[in-house]
Each structure stands twice: as structure tokens, then as C-alpha cells.
Please model this.
Amino acid sequence: MLVSIMIAGFGGQGVMLLGRLIGECAFEENLHVSFLPAYGPEQRGGTANCTVIVSDEEIAAPVAEELDILCAMNQPSFDKFIGKVKAGGTVYINKTLVNADKARERDVEIVEIDADNLAYQLGTVKVANIIMLAAFLATAKILNVDRAREVVLKKLGKKQELLELNRQAFQCGLEQAEKTS
Amino acid sequence: MTRVFMKGCEAIAEAAIRGGCRFFAGYPITPQNEIPEYMSRELPRHGGVFVQGESEIASIYMVYGAAAAGNYAMTSSSSPGISLKSEGLSYLAAAKLPAVVVSVMRAGPGLGTILPAQNDYFQATKASGHGGFRTITFAPSTLQEAVDLTYQAFEYAQRDRNPVIIAIDGFLGAIMEPVVLPPFKELKEPPKWAVTGKKGKMYHIITPATANENSQQAFNLQMEKLYRRWAQEDVRVEEYRVEDAEFVFAAYGTSGRVCKSVVNALREQGVKAGLIRPITINPFPYRSFEKLDPDRVKAVIVAEMAIPPQLLYDVRVGVGRAIPITIVRASGGNIISQKEAVEKVLSLQKGEMDYEEII
Model:
């Protein structure tokens, strides 16, 4: 098993955190995992992306020229990276900001999560990434969702008020995944 | 042994502390800022000292002073910063002072970009400063290897009384991977040669200068002997699926692991590919290339993130003229393309050979 995942979006959308948390969850399951941020001179509002590779064997290249999974948090990222997704791959889109029409002809599964709007309803757009993360975990079925939830909430649990918000966001992502599947 | 999920630069810093490092001086530069940041937080907790110098030059001379006093000392920087430290590195080598210097390479020349590259190969292996000194230079490819080599680097530095360089590219500095951290080493007494206060003992002189032509030449000859011993005893290399390989990649660091994927992909297609991955880029594993059988190996493909190529020189010295050498390359922050590397080998297999000359 080797799964290559790219998370991409605006700087400030929590793209790196999303990727890193997938990495942390895989780490807790004793899998081989690499998390590589594209850390160019990015800034808030610019584009950012990271590559996560999860495998049950040693990981050689920490980058992927063909992706199994793309998680696009905004339109420019979707447009830039959709071409890298393998036939049969999966694309998670933040439906609030991404129009996936140009990928409908392609042999890829599209999972649409209205992440920004749902996050607004929870109180802040900042948790859109956690909604996406939970939706990804629930549908991709690479990692154990319950254990992942524990890991994520432990990592994000430094401030009590944010912990509750993240818990709701995670739950929201799981429910959305159920609706779309 | 602790298994953790850590960022490259931070894991290297932690490995250094566990390996006995108790003094760090540095100056900020991307992409290695997490090393001094981590050191500033963690070193004092272990009784160590962190100093942010007023410049790279000041920092390396603080390391010089700390090393002279018998401490396990370290600094880190990235390409332009390593250039600034190069004078001090030469002084360390001349004064026979042990230290560990981490070079996190970024694209250049000049200020270049903050993005990862391997274009400081010459600097890390051949001319880390003036005067013709050498260092053992480790080029880890995974975070675990980086941790293990940093941990050991202090012992090599102390053994030889010479600086050791850990040369990585920005990818390895930024990556997060699971690593097993080694246990904390017990600190040793300062070595006999260190300047720790006279108090009735003989005084020690630590100096980067010699008195005259004969003493200078005697020093050079003594150091040459050390460098020769490294070539005999300290070369480290990974030979991956080379036994029956017809196409052999030569790559280190991040390019090394990219090429490992390429080798696996080619093997799946029935192409006999292999990889020679230098772990010490100095002393260089020439022997691994010398022993390649020209009757079997059709080409050696050097893959590095440097344009024009640099690793190519050492590979050419090892391979000689008997086997053609070609290259796959990238620079500026780009990583070696696996697709391009696979296609290169497939075209070589068809007999489309392009020879790469040293420029």
C-alpha cells in the first residue's frame, strides 16, 4: 500500500496543518509516512501545498508526480493540480470555493464538501480544514477514524474552547462524508 | 529509544543534543531556522548554551571558542551563510578543533532562492574554506539517517579533532517523518588538549597558524594522513540493487531517495536498474564505482539538484572512461523528476546514449 496525497489551498486555510495531521494519524498507526511542505516564499493569501505519503513499506521519494488523492481547498490549487491525479484517484474539493466541472469528464472520483460554509455555521471559517480532514478520513478509509479523531483532538487540544470547536468540526466532516457517499 | 514524528531540522537538533552537543551558535537563514529555534528552546534545558550571534562569522568563531574549551559545539546555516562561515571552518580545521556544521543547501548562487538544492556539493566536500582542508561530510537521505549521523558526528569530530559537515538539502530540513531518537549520551570530560584553565598543568596552545614553511608542510602532511585514513575506513555508501544492474544511478540526499523510487519503478518494468548512494560524500565511495563491470553496466546516470552538475566529477573519477555517464538534473528548488529519470533509462536501453562531459 502506498498512497500519495496532496493538500493545496490558500496560505491561511490550514493546508499544512491538515497535511500534518494526516501524517500524525498515520504515524500513530505505525505506518511509514512522510509530510513534505512546499514552503516557498508563501504568505497569507498566496498558495500553499504539501505532500503526504502513507505506506506500509519504506518510503523512498517523498514527492509524487502522480497523486492518488488531491484535496483542493481553493480554485487555483484545483486548477493547478487536477492534472496530476491518477486515473481512478480521488479529489476532495472545498465546494464553497471550488468548481470541479472541468474534472467531471475525467476518471476521478470527486468528493464535494461545502467546507467553508459549514465552518462558518460552526462559528469560524478556520475549521474548514478539520471538516475536510474528517471527511477525507471517513471516505478514504486509509486510517482508522476513531483513532485519528483522538490524535487530532489531542494535537489541537491546547486551548479548551478551540478543542470543542474542533470536535464539532470533525463530527461535521464525518456527517458530510456520510451524506456524499 | 523514542519513536517520534518530527520535522527534519528539529530532529537534527534533537539528535545533536542527544549526541552530546552543549553549545550552539547560529544566525538565522531559511531553510534551516528550525535548528537554531529548537536549540534556543531545548539546549538550556540540558545545561547547554545557545547564542544567536550577530552574524554567521561571529557564530562560527563562538563555536571555535567553545570547541577549544572542550565542548561539543555546533552551528548550522544555509548556502550563503555557509559561505560566510567558511573562513571560520578553515580556522577550525587548522586549529584541529572538533565541531559539527550543518549545511542545509538552498538554490544559488548568490542569495538565490530559499528553495532546496544540492548546488553546494563542491563547497561541502572539496572547498569548505580556503587552505585545502577536508572534512568528513555526511549526506543523509532520510530523516532517520540524518538523526543517526548527526548523533555520531560529534564522535567523529572528537576522534579526528576536525570539523564534520552534515550536508542536506532543504527538502530533508523541512520534511516530517517518523524517527527513532537515540538515547542521551553521557557527557565526557573535556579532552586533554582542551584549554580549560592552567591551574598548575601544562598550558595548551590552540592556534590556526604555524611558524614557518616546514611546520606548515608537516601539518599538511599530518592531515593528509588523516584524510587517507578516512578513505580507507570511513566511507559509507548504500548500494541498492546494483549486483545485476545494467543502469546504475548515482545520487545522494533527497535525489538519492527519489532515485530509489525510480529504480523500483524500472525493476517493475523488468529493467535492471540500481543505485549507488553515497552517504559520506567525503570521503567519497569511489570504490563502489570502480568495481562496476563495464561488460554489464551500460550507463551510469548521475541525478542531482545542481546545474551544472557537481557530483558528476566524483562519479567520473570513480567510473573512469569505461562506462558512459549521463545525467538527470534539476535546480532552483525543483526536485529530480521521476518520470524524466525513468524515460532517460528507457531511451538509454534503446541505445540512445547521450554522454555527459564535465564542464
